[in-house]
Structures are given as structure tokens and as C-alpha cells.
């Protein structure tokens, strides 16, 4: 069989990793693909010191790769929305298959890209875009294809999980850990995508589309990041038997699809609570298989390259990667966050005087909200404010927002109430 020729655009963390995995594992890869895979050309602005490109054609014009008639598969690893979209559409127009790790591109421009690929009869692989090295797209699309999927939930941003873990275990500062995640190549070019939940929302949008056969709809995903989580919240959650994790959660409900990304209290005995550092974990519940959990490194050069190269091998083996069930997408409604039901962790600062706790409890109870646990701390030396922390049973978000507004209006509570959602994932 004739070799498959690959053009890699972008030679940064993932591009460099892909170059090296294709080179170093060349023998195993050829055996699995049934033919040799050759790096025909690399398009990059800057050389990558970790890659020996002395025997490879290198250009600084990525569009030359999309125009190169020798190339069968264009691997897009430059990141971002606009140039990447143009590059990928150009490659498809020229009859090339595409492999990308760019979840932002797929979540936002996927429908247009998949339609162009279908028309041109080529494949678009994006396994590396979701949960890095974990083959979770393949798992849902192929391994769990028999199931009616009921829920997909998990840790899908490595940088965020790394930050929360280091803050909890070593008491490190948020900014300091973020800088380390950037140096390790985990973070997005714009790290607010990681810390504000945008990257996780891109990934959850893609996972949900595959799991439920619904259109990609990033704009309908409720998104909240970890930037407001304090070390106190992390510690109080642990005292209550929970761990704060940044989760993407999507589920079918009787009224629509629940689609949201936010910091979440998870019970300490749940497997997801134990997934630390840059590791990701995705729990998928199918009606036949029941609960499954996929765990592994969510970011970094090697793990992400592992997924990129797996897609290249599938294409070389002529396994067509059907991006989404094009002809049968169901337009199911996505629930607005106000209609979502969860438990809540609440933290507030109260004046240290009699009756305050009773008043807060009565506001919650008048709104039909049941309290599961309360912690009231001693005031610090010379302080007149004491923190009150509460856990509630499940209630609709709009009811909780109403109760919080009443608590914040009450004169003996200082400032705003911190609210973090709780999920038992069972
Ligand atoms: N880093 C990870 O762990 C990881 C994991 C999964 C997915 N991703 C995704 O992979 C993609 C690449 O991420 P990365 O971390 O490797 O980024 P990076 O910044 O390390 O690498 C991108 C490279 O592309 C080059 N580039 C960008 N625009 C270019 C242009 N117009 N012409 C020529 N070169 C250009 C840059 O110079 C850089 O070397 C992104 O879409 C990212 O979201 C990254
Ligand atoms: N910035 C992303 C890269 C992997 O998609 C993360 O930290 O998870
Ligand atoms: Na993956």
C-alpha cells in the first residue's frame, strides 16, 4: 500500500508532540495503520527545539501545506478560530482529510466544517480536542454506540484541575499555579479560556453533540469558571465531606438537555473527586452499559499527540470518522440554567449576634429549600463577622437565586452570598 503523507501545521506543544510520536513510534504506527505514515511537510512560524526537522520540508506558510498536492492529511495544530477555520476549509476543498486538536474550532465552526467535509468526501478527526489523551470520543461514538446515553459528566480541563489540586494540597496561589500550567504547555494561548470555563464548555458542547445526537450549540452551554473559588471554600467543602472540582455536566431530563460547566462540590467518595492534577475523567452513563468512567491525562504534548496520531492512523486504515450523525440530529431544547435543579453550597459573612442563623434558615425554608448541613465558624480575633456555610438539598436554580436575594437584603448579612453547585453523580 502506498504511504500516507501528513502535513503538520503548528509545531508548538501538540504539533511538536505529534511530530515526535509519529517519528519515534513510526514502526508500531505503520504496523497498525497497515502502511507507512510520512511527515511530508511542516508549516510553522517558529522551529521547536524538541523536534529534529532536519530531514523534513519546513515552511512558514501554513496555507502552502493546504495547497501541497502530495499531502493526504492536514493536521491543524495552530489553535484559534479564524485562521484555523480558513486553513481547514482550504484543506478540505483540496480533498485532504483533516485532524485537529482544536476544540474551540469544532465547537463553534464544526457544523460548517463537517458539511464541507461531507461534500468533499473527506474525514475530520478531533479526538485530541476533548479530554486530551483519553479516547473518549471514540468510546462514545464506537464503544458505546449501542446505548441511549443519559449523562456525560466530568473533569475536562486539565489546567483547571491542576490549579484546584495544587491550591488544595499545597496551599499555593492561583496565579502561581496557572503560570506553572502555562510553562508545562497545558494552558490555552489565552488562559482565561481555561480558568473561566470556556475551554470546558467547548469540550462539553462536542461531547453532548456526539452523545445525544444534537447540534453543536456552544452558545447554549451555561459557563462558569474557577477564578472565584477561594481557599476557604476548598477547605469548608472538605470539612463537609466534599471536594470542589470544575465539571462539565450534561444530561437528558424530561424537559430538555441539561448543559453546564461550573465548579461543583462532589462527594469525597466519588471516583471523580480523586482525579487530581492534569488528569481528566469523564463519566458516561448509557442505558445498557450503565456507569462507565474514562480517566487519563487531559493535556500536554505526549497525551494529546497520542490522540492526534490515533486519528491519523484511523484515516490511514480508511476507517471513516463520521463527525456527527449528520442526517439525524435531534433538535432537543437545552435547559436555561434557571430551570436546572441541583444542591447548593452557600457561604456568607454574618454579624456575630443571636438570631442571624435562625433568620437565614427561615428564608431558605420559606422558599421550600431544605438544609442538609450547617457550619458556623468562630469569629477571628477582633472580628465582628463570622462565616456561615450551608449545604442544601436539590432545588431549582431560580428558587435558590430568589432565596439568596432575600438573604443578601437582610441587614445582618454582609456582602454577597457565595453559591457553588453540588452534584452526587449517582
Ligand atoms: N497544549 C495542550 O495540552 C493541548 C491539548 C489538547 C488540545 N490542544 C489544542 O491544540 C492546539 C495547539 O495548542 P498548543 O498548546 O500546541 O499551542 P502552541 O501555542 O504551543 O502551538 C501553536 C503553534 O502554532 C504556531 N502558529 C499559530 N498560528 C500560526 C500561523 N498562522 N502560521 C504558522 N504557525 C502558526 C505558533 O507559532 C505555535 O508554535 C490548540 O487548538 C489547543 O487548544 C492543546
Ligand atoms: N488547555 C486545555 C488543553 C487540553 O485540551 C486543558 O488544560 O485541558
Ligand atoms: Na480525547
From TrEMBL:
Gene3D superfamilies in the cross-refs: 3.30.70.260, Dihydrodipicolinate Reductase, domain 2, NAD(P)-binding Rossmann-like Domain
Q: Which InterPro entries match?
A: ACT-like_dom_sf, ACT_dom, Asp/hSer_DH_NAD-bd, HDH, HDH_cat, HDH_CS, NAD(P)-bd_dom_sf
**PANTHER family, alphabetically?**
HOMOSERINE DEHYDROGENASE
- Any one GO molecular-function label of the UniProt entry: NADP binding
Keyword flag DNA-binding: no
Q: Which domain of life is it from?
A: Bacteria
Q: Where is the ACT domain?
A: 345-422
Which pathway does it operate in?
Amino-acid biosynthesis; L-threonine biosynthesis; L-threonine from L-aspartate: step 3/5; Amino-acid biosynthesis; L-methionine biosynthesis via de novo pathway; L-homoserine from L-aspartate: step 3/3
Instruction: Please name the catalytic residues of this protein.
Output: 203
What's the family?
Belongs to the homoserine dehydrogenase family.
Question: Binding of L-homoserine: at which residues?
Answer: 188
Can the keyword Coiled coil be found in this entry's annotation? Answer: no
Q: What is this protein called?
A: Homoserine dehydrogenase
